[in-house]
Amino acid sequence: MKMIIGLGNPGKPYEHTRHNIGFDVIDELSKRFNSPLNQMKFKGMYTIIHRPEGKFLLVKPLTYMNLSGECIVPMMNYFDVAEEDIVVIYDDLDLAVGKLRLRQKGSAGGHNGIKSMIQHLGTQEFNRIRVGVDRPPAGMKVPDYVLSRFKSDEKPLMNEAITKSADACEVWLSSPFLEVMNRFNGA
């Protein structure tokens, strides 16, 4: 079984903010597979999807970003999902708006959701799809920036990034992540 995890914060005030791009990708996949996230376990919403390639979960931790690992690791243990069978989707300040970077391992790079994942998993080796949201403008604090919504000229780029991230997840269901990286990196 594989697990696709989108990081974000629960609740209306956080919907479609820069920090919730992982949730937006999960929503896109949920629509594609006509499978709403209507189950709860370990402080997370999820759905199980059965495909010819096998079963997989779509997951949104409801722990708030900084505690994402508290949801994911118990869920991985419960469903017997190995580290190599997860992909985590999240925002990245070091990439231009809408750019993707896929990696199989790495540090948290200052991202608190990934720090929590690394702390709870005990490893930095897990698949990731980082979605660029760019750096805040001069004078704006990072927390305020990541909790802001995209500007109108950024929305088309982000919609495309959501589509490409969801496409990458679909390809990963039947292909090694290395192949997915080669195909989607820099998209």
TrEMBL record:
The keyword Hydrolase applies. One of its GO terms (molecular function) is peptidyl-tRNA hydrolase activity. Keywords: Cytoplasm, Hydrolase, RNA-binding, tRNA-binding. The record marks D91 as: Stabilizes the basic form of H active site to accept a proton. Its main location: cytoplasm. CDD domains: PTH. InterPro entries: Pept_tRNA_hydro, Pept_tRNA_hydro_CS, Pept_tRNA_hydro_sf. TRNA binds at Y14, Y64, N66, N112. It comes from the Bacteria. The keyword Hydrolase applies. It catalyses: an N-acyl-L-alpha-aminoacyl-tRNA + H2O = an N-acyl-L-amino acid + a tRNA + H(+). It is found in: Cytoplasm. The record marks N9 as: Discriminates between blocked and unblocked aminoacyl-tRNA. The active site is at H19. Its EC number is 3.1.1.29. HAMAP family: Pept_tRNA_hydro_bact (MF_00083). Monomer. Belongs to the PTH family. This is Peptidyl-tRNA hydrolase. It comes from Paenisporosarcina macmurdoensis. The gene is pth.
